[in-house]
Amino acid sequence: MNARNIILVLLVLIFSLGIVFAQVAEEQTQAAPEAQTTVVQEDPVAPTEAKAITITPGEIFKDSGLWGYFILLTFIIGIVYAVVRYIQLYVREKIDAGKFYLKLKGYIKNDQIEEATKISESFKNTTLGFIFWSGLMVFKDARKSGKKGEELSRSVQNAFEEAVLQTVHKLDAGLFWFDLLAQICTYLGLLGTIWGLIQAFKALDVAAEADKNKELTRGIKTAIGTTAMGLIGAIPLTLIKGGLLVRAQNIINDIDEFSVKLINQINTSIKE
């Protein structure tokens, strides 16, 4: 990860943490007036309607207590890294491999190697473009140096293989971090669950009789809330990793297919 990506990660992380703290402060502000509301005496004769109970992510986060902040921080780190990897795989690697190959094929068939090299150089920021450019540069220089036939073909083959080994592994490198962060979210949720249950059972043992139900409820809410928060963080990270892995694999497949086709086209031009 270069310096520009590190700066992007830090900026998004700071921005995300600011949103989290602002949301917590807003929830605390809204909770204060609710404590001052007066109790309205209900008519025992009038029928009461059952109200639907809704649970929001904010309530789950509030119930998870301190563990929720650790889970949320882990999730935010995963989202920031997902943005970085999305830019790398979807923005920087945006190229139509088929059209790119056909364009270079036409120049090679017409023995316009210089033009083909310049076109591939303009796409050198992509993995496929860099591989094609490396192979064509060696082809051009080797032919100028007087290499012919099998020797020239072997030089081109080696150049393509070296460029592939130099770049392809970077496409899916680091995607294991999403699995690790998802596991951390899950484990923190489980740890918070155990913590909440310990609090609940301890309340039954040491709390005053009037406070036992309240403390027991609080411990159970913490246990369930942290479990939910862990899953809420782990599931999206797992899905994100799957999507990025599919994209990386598609790029690698294109590189394998069209590199072989371009090498065959170059070998055909060498024989002619």
Structural summary, described in words:
By secondary structure, this protein is an all-alpha fold. The protein has a domain at 112-171 and 253-271. It is built from nine helices and no strands. The protein has helices at residues 3-35, 57-63, 66-91, 97-109, 113-122, 127-144, 149-167, 176-206, 212-271. The protein is rod-shaped, with a radius of gyration of 30 Å.
Determine the structural class based on helices, strands and strand pairing. mainly alpha
What is the string of helix and strand elements? HHHHHHHHH
Radius of gyration: 30 Å
State the total count of DSSP E strands. Answer: 0
The best one-word shape is rod-shaped
Unreliable spans: 31-42
Query: Helix tally?
Result: 9
Q: DSSP strand (E) fraction?
A: under 5%
Sheet with the most strands, sense and barrel status: none
Mean pLDDT: 80
Helix content bin: over 70%
User: How far is the N terminus from the C terminus?
Assistant: 44 Å
As an assembly, this protein is single chain
